[in-house]
Automatic annotation (TrEMBL):
The keyword DNA-binding applies. Keywords: DNA replication, DNA-binding, Nucleus. Residues 127-254 form the Proliferating cell nuclear antigen PCNA C-terminal domain. One of its GO terms (cellular component) is PCNA complex. Gene3D superfamilies: DNA Polymerase III, subunit A, domain 2 (3.10.150.10). It is found in: Nucleus. This protein is an auxiliary protein of DNA polymerase delta and is involved in the control of eukaryotic DNA replication by increasing the polymerase's processivity during elongation of the leading strand. Residues 1-124 form the Proliferating cell nuclear antigen PCNA N-terminal domain. This is DNA sliding clamp PCNA.
Length: 263
């Protein structure tokens, strides 16, 4: 038997919004420790990793480790039936073919119940190796979203440079180019200008803005975002979900056409 209770439906809604455009179907792996999801997008360019700790939820139990095959769009539609502040319970029996959703209003005067058919998804759990990164940047989620949105109007790719001066995002397109540079500025006051950089080596890598745009949909989950970069390894973009867990995205760097084109 698996059952998890969230004090507010908004957390689950935001998690689904942050993943459904990249992954259509995925297994939610439930264990005594909590809920985990790991899936690649259809083009196998990016990977999503979600972790929700059971002991930080309103209540949680999972007697046997189970994988629940979820269609993200269907689950999103069901969650839209809940108000953001509704207490939300999701449950499934060990051999169930449905997941049950129970939404309780703030005043406990309204209860809604829905069932969603589960899927049989054959997916390989990819081991993500621990990685030491050359540069890790902590910045405002809103600022990162704004930069990605603005540069997407200029070009399809972004060059991210991190050095001792700070972090620079640059894009080029047929109509022109644009750059945004942010200096490291850790401050006691919370604000969009707060940038902290942990740097061992300078890094300069290119990434597809299309995928970074998908990643920024997790911005409502956290005020801050962490970008971790190293040469020749995927970028890791991480948003903390309070004390409950995190959502991480991995994106392979782009290689210049002239480097990977052979006669």
């Amino acid at each position: 038997m698996f059952e998890a209770t969230f004090n507010q439906a908004s957390i689950l809604k935001q998690v689904l919004e942050a993943t459904k455009d990249l992954v259509n179907d995925a297994n939610w792996d439930c264990s005594a420790e909590g809920i985990a999801l790991q899936a690649m997008d259809s083009s196998h360019v990016s990977l999503v990793s979600l972790s929700l700790r059971g002991d930080e939820l309103a209540s949680y139990r999972c007697e046997n480790q189970i994988s629940l095959g979820i269609n993200m769009n269907t689950m999103t539609k069901i969650l839209k039936c809940a108000e953001n502040n509704d207490r939300t319970i999701i449950r499934a029996d060990d051999d169930a073919d449905v997941m049950v959703f129970v939404f309780e209003s703030e005043g406990r005067d309204k209860t809604s119940k829905y069932e969603m058919k589960l899927m049989d998804i054959d997916s390989e759990h990819l081991g993500i190796p621990e990685q030491e990164y050359s540069a890790t940047v902590q910045m405002s989620s809103k600022e990162f979203s704004r930069i990605v949105r603005d540069l997407s109007t200029i070009g399809e790719n972004v060059e991210i440079t991190v050095d001792k001066e700070g972090i620079t995002f640059g894009a080029k397109g047929e109509s022109g180019s644009g750059t945004v540079s942010l200096k490291s500025n850790p401050s006691v006051d919370e604000g969009s200008s707060n940038i902290t950089i942990d740097l061992t080596d300078s890094v300069k890598l290119n990434f597809a803005l299309r995928y970074l745009t998908f990643f920024t949909k997790a911005a409502p989950l956290s005020d801050n975002v962490s970008l971790s970069l190293s040469a020749d390894v995927p970028l890791m973009v991480e948003y903390a979900i309070g004390d409950v867990g995190f959502i991480r995205y991995y994106l392979a760097p782009k290689i210049d056409d002239d480097e990977d084109t052979e006669e």
